[in-house]
């Protein structure tokens, strides 16, 4: 069985932990302190926090695409430490730093299990501007989402007998994801259509595997600032690293 097929069926029987710890690597040296960078105005009639583009790495970049301070997060939608960051730091990151045009924030999926892959596909099942808010909704409702996943495991014992183009729909139905996303603007029909595209769903996992190997991303959340992996995964440390790189918060 290929690794992608294993992801399609894996982790449905194993307990799903709510741990806030992360499995990350050590940093590659110290950040060099930079002078404060002047804020960069958004195009007229826009705010940088409304600007989103899908990158060549299939991440969702929020903010000024030419920002001098580039922050990337590899995150899993079933990761407790990622949920902790979303709950305690993501809003401040966007409102205080991305809004200035100096910092961009790119979120990329690292896929850990079949539930994770299903959630990643659903978060992408709309306009690019919806990706960050939908991911944040999963993380900010983490205990509910994890509880529903735990309850779904017994219902998915025979998932291997389900046709491939129906497997992720079955996972989403059993785990309550269809109703969760329907309440946030992704209709059940729209979600089912996205999840039925087996090739597109598995491509998310394939990119996750490839990039994680290339960049030695062994756990989540992993943050990369201007090409350097950080040893921080909580907001105070991330904010300090941004300021060392020259970013300053928006006033007010």
UniProtKB/TrEMBL annotation:
It comes from the Bacteria. Keywords: Isomerase, Signal. Transmembrane segments: none annotated. It holds the Pfam family Thioredoxin_4. GO terms for molecular function: isomerase activity. Residues 1-24 form the signal peptide. InterPro entries: Thioredoxin-like_fold, Thioredoxin-like_sf. Residues 59-241 form the Thioredoxin-like fold domain. The keyword Transport does not apply. This is Protein-disulfide isomerase. It comes from Aurantiacibacter zhengii. The lineage of its organism: Bacteria, Pseudomonadati, Pseudomonadota, Alphaproteobacteria, Sphingomonadales.
